[in-house]
Specification:
Blueprint: E1 2-14, E2 27-39, H1 51-62, E3 68-69, H2 83-98, E4 104-111, E5 118-121
Parallel strand pairs: 1-3
Antiparallel strand pairs: 1-2, 2-4, 4-5
């Protein structure tokens, strides 16, 4: 099994409705996202998937989030834009864009501050 990952960042604000504390107020983060892909077979060149393709798809998935107030975006109308929900959202979007017979998005890790992260994956 091969696994590769790509890291990227974006900046955005959010608040956590129903949270008892300062995070209920609008505040911002410089978010870090790491996407992990897995597969068993490499292509004829020896790649699981081209890093350039993964980077482009990650940037496309992050574009609507960058410099946005996440709480107001349609994809978070029913859920707080917590790190956990962001990881699940990005896993879903990137799976649609990148999954193939050879490679699958395995997990997505989102960090809103150094030393903390939330990871989402689905059972095989």
């Amino acid at each position: 099994m091969f696994e590769l990952s790509v890291k990227s960042q974006f900046s955005a604000a959010h608040c956590l409705k129903g949270y008892d504390g300062a995070c209920a107020n609008l505040h911002g983060h410089n978010w870090e996202v790491e996407v992990f892909l897995r597969g068993r077979r490499l292509d004829a060149v020896g790649l699981l998937i081209d890093f350039k393709q993964v980077k482009a798809e990650v940037q496309a998935a992050l574009a609507p989030l960058d410099h946005a107030e996440l709480t107001r975006l349609p994809m978070f109308a029913r859920y707080n834009p917590s790190s956990e929900h962001l990881a699940r959202y990005l896993h879903t979007v990137l799976s649609r864009r990148l999954n193939s017979r050879r490679v699958r998005v395995h997990r997505v890790r989102v960090s809103e501050s150094p030393g903390t992260s939330a990871t989402y994956w689905e059972r095989p």
